[in-house]
Amino acid sequence: MPIMRLKPSCKDYLWGGECLKAEFGVQSDLHPLAEAWVLSAHPDGPSYLEDGSTLADYLATHPEAAGTHCRKFEQFPILTKFIDAKNDLSIQVHPSDAYALEHEGQYGKTEVWYVLDAEPGAFLYYGFAHEITKEEFAKRIRENTLTEVLNAVPVKQGNVFFIPAGTLHAICKGIVIAEVQQNSNVTYRVYDYGRVGADGKPRALHIQQALAVTELCPPKELDFGGHLARCDYFTVDAVTGEFEGVSDETSFVSLLITEGTGTLHCGGEQVPFRKGDSLFLPAGSGAYVMQGAYQALVTTV
Per residue in 215-248, pLDDT tens? Predict the structure, then answer.
């Protein structure tokens, strides 16, 4: 069966909302619903096949399904999620592979954001407005003036942000995104607006780690050769309408439906899809065709 429909693990972080249920058909009893991990082999939130087994279980028994490009990674390399930021996320940073493997026992985190919806006036933080020193960074964290030197970017539907490990960032309120990232759950919070968690205590900050890994400069302009994003860990494209592709031996294909409805044809199967669906084609599934009035993100390694 070449076409696999995945069900997500969900997260109820305090800044989340309810639109993933209403707009993307995510089924969850969580309130709020902040994230849906729609393609994940991470133990903190695996995605599930329709028979109830996990994607990680499937890949453990069918390692060839990940593709030959994934052999260089000790673990399945990516994690894809929907994020509903009804309120501001913490200002945070993710470490590189080298730092994360040494200190956290898992990969670092490079990621890309694709904005699915944004309220009027919505913005996010993306690196620094200008280069600063580590001493100034530490001082501004202590004095709660960090946002004064951050690069605040207005956003609208369709915007794309590539966030290499080490880039300070925060999704702010009123934004819904699709995120493709490395298979990691390492986040260092730098500033969290003084909020408390479900236990009534301030959420933990990770100042020393952030001082060690943060790039203290504006984000760099990058050329992805016509792709939404491309790096050692993933290649992401936005497609619509009649789209033809091939799942060869080198990589699986992840299809995340961000708008509309349609039909996926592959290996003699025809599977209908709708907004919010996450479909997985194992490596070597062959030619596939997507048809309909839809928009989707196609991710490979």
Answer: 999 999 999 999 999 999 999 999 999 999 999 9
Region of 132 please: left (phi>0), alpha (psi -120 to 50) or beta: beta
pLDDT, tens digit, 9 for 90 and up, residues 241-280: 999 999 999 999 999 999 999 999 999 999 999 999 999 9
- Kindly state the tokens that stand for 226: 């016509």
Rg (CA), the chain: 19
Query: Which residues does the annotation mark as catalytic?
Result: 189
Q: What is the pTM of this model?
A: 0.96
Q: Could you identify the residue written with the tokens 């439906």?
A: 257
Supply the DSSP symbol for 88. P
Neighbours of 74 (CB within 10 A): 11
User: Which of 179, 170, 147 is CA-nearest to residue 83?
Assistant: 179
Report the 3 state secondary structure along 214-263.
CCCCCCCCCCCCCCCEECCCCEEEEEECCEEEEECCCCCEEEEEEEEEEE
Going by their DSSP bridges, the two strands 169-171 and 175-182 should be labelled as unpaired
